[in-house]
Amino acid sequence: MRHDKRVVLVTGGSGGIGEALVERYARDGAAVGIVDVNEETGAALARRLADAGLGVHFAHADVGDFAACEAACRAIEAALGPVDTLVNNAGISPKHAGKPMPVWQMSPDEWRRVMDVNVNSVFNFCRILAPGMVERRFGRIVSMSSVAGKAYLDIVAAHYSTTKAALIGMTRHLAGELGPHGITVNAIAPGRIDTPLVRGVAREANEKVAQETPLRRLGAPDEVASTCLFLTSDEAAFVTGQVIDVAGGWLMT
Ligand SMILES: NC(=O)c1ccc[n+]([C@@H]2O[C@H](COP(=O)([O-])OP(=O)(O)OC[C@H]3O[C@@H](n4cnc5c(N)ncnc54)[C@H](O)[C@@H]3O)[C@@H](O)[C@H]2O)c1
């Protein structure tokens, strides 16, 4: 197994792509910490995997809250050991009646909330966990960007695409800064993946994306997890600062 002896922390690990990540890492030998704001689904997932004999620990936190992230990291490291693999997956894409809010009507609170959950969270976890990775001279970091960070999409709002573009800049900067310390930093840009996040829009909108996608379908959470496991495995030890589309050829950004 490729992730034996690894301690992986997945943010937003209770549902959607995060749940697939948690399960795949646990089945690939890693001890997995889940950080999520949804206590009910996170604890249930941890219980289900623990019952299957896998090492999983759930910690509740809002990823936009630095003190809560610190407490969650401390709890996970106390239960599983030092985190060497961080997957910044938590993200939100607020809609109103299934539609993105135009920037000229958006509330400043909504704008700031998306910055906190989608971008400031990545700073929070890197700030808390990178010192240990630097000290041990090993680390793997992957952040969930989006094709919306690279191309205009009318099905998301400005805050969402702004945060996903920010993660691409942060990935490249951190790859440069942390590379000399044995840490790789990459990002994944999913296309349209069938999760609760995309079910909030009209079905026709997702069908249109499927038709525009060369592979003529939405992606599955497990297909994003496969790329993430590759990026954090030893097979990708010389890959850093990259943004990998998992999008069925949609947009080819
Ligand atoms: N689904 C897609 O088509 C798609 C496409 C491109 C990028 N992405 C990105 O992939 C990531 C996962 O998306 P998904 O589709 O699985 O979303 P999802 O909504 O299905 O799941 C997101 C998870 O994050 C958790 N979460 C939300 N806000 C949180 C907070 N403040 N603190 C802690 N946890 C929080 C939720 O409880 C949930 O478990 C996101 O960053 C998203 O932007 C998704």
Word description of this protein:
It is a single chain. With 253 residues, this protein is of the alpha/beta class. Helices cover 44% and strands 15% of the residues. It has a single domain (7-245), classed as Rossmann fold. The chain has helices spanning 16-27, 39-51, 66-80, 108-136, 158-178, 203-212, 221-232, and strands spanning 7-11, 31-36, 56-60, 85-88, 139-144, 183-190, 243-246. Strands 3-2-1-4-5-6-7 form a seven-stranded parallel sheet, with helices on both faces. Helix 3 packs parallel to helix 4. The chain is globular and about 45 Å long. The mean pLDDT is 97. The protein binds nicotinamide-adenine-dinucleotide. Nicotinamide-adenine-dinucleotide binds next to helix 1. One of its GO terms (molecular function) is oxidoreductase activity, acting on the CH-OH group of donors, NAD or NADP as acceptor. Belongs to the short-chain dehydrogenases/reductases (SDR) family. Residues 6-191 form the Ketoreductase domain. It holds the Pfam family adh_short_C2.
Write the layout of secondary structure elements.
Blueprint: E1 7-11, H1 16-27, E2 31-36, H2 39-51, E3 56-60, H3 66-80, E4 85-88, H4 108-136, E5 139-144, H5 158-178, E6 183-190, H6 203-212, H7 221-232, E7 243-246
Parallel strand pairs: 1-2, 1-4, 2-3, 4-5, 5-6, 6-7
Helix pairs in contact: 1-7, 3-4, 4-5
The structure holds nicotinamide-adenine-dinucleotide (NAD).
Pfam families: adh_short_C2 (PF13561)
GO molecular function: oxidoreductase activity, acting on the CH-OH group of donors, NAD or NADP as acceptor
Keywords: Oxidoreductase
